Amino acid sequence: MKTKLTAIFLAALLFSCKDKEKTEFPEAKKPPKTIMALFAHPDDETTIGPILAKYASLSDVHLVVATDGRYGVTDHSGLPAGDSLVAVRKEETKCACEKLGINPPHFLEAKDGLGLNGNHNFYVEVKTLKERIQEKITELQPDVILTFGPDGDTGHPDHRMVGLLATEILLREGWANTIDLYHFGWTKDQIKKFPQDWGLGYVHPDHLNTTISFSPEEEEKAFSSLRCHKSQFAEPDMVKWIQAERNDTTNVLYFRKFSLDNATLTGF
């Protein structure tokens, strides 16, 4: 009987250790040397602001903004679409990066997809953007790329596009085994905390294999960076957003690490 109980105890201990390793593994990894956060618009980095603030002191963090955001018109700002709005949003993003403690932003200057008319214009713009993203990867030589997943956060076509292009480039150039690609994703429970209806997409928790925690101090830096984007968020909306995040004391964000099974198969 004693031998049987000992065996049961050892088995339980083994399983508990495995669970612990799975939970703590992302935090136990050595921080990457260079992180490239690739997003579609000036202000999209707010989605993972606390994570960028966290790694600012651990890694060389670069924000790459794909489009110029010239069509991000809001009622409260009174700014028209066009070059004047582009200039304002660039300064806001520079402010946000400074508050997060990361490098100044890199702007790829693609046109916001909302302003493209016709399939030909879209095709040309996507081709150009893909070239610019690849050039930026070659320049920065990141160990890690953070970007949107297939859901695109809010489902915005530009959000989906940058994630798709990053994935395509890594697969096409054979970089998927040397650069770690992480797609950001909300869980269904997480999106319930926001009072605004942003139409956020979500991912089943089983398919989010990386959990990154952040401190209250790192979260406060993210709030400061959010406040830089005054053209995009009215003050009452920012207050509600920040309060919703403060009410959520779990202080974690989730990602899905893109991985390949390099085994050669002869059937499905």
TrEMBL record:
A matching Pfam family: PIG-L
Database matches in PROSITE patterns: PROKAR_LIPOPROTEIN (PS51257)
Source organism superkingdom: Bacteria
InterPro entries, per database record: GlcNAc_PI_deacetylase-related, LmbE-like_dom_sf
Gene Ontology MF: a single term: hydrolase activity, acting on carbon-nitrogen (but not peptide) bonds, in linear amides
The protein's name in its UniProt record: PIG-L family deacetylase
Organism whose genome encodes this protein: Ulvibacterium marinum
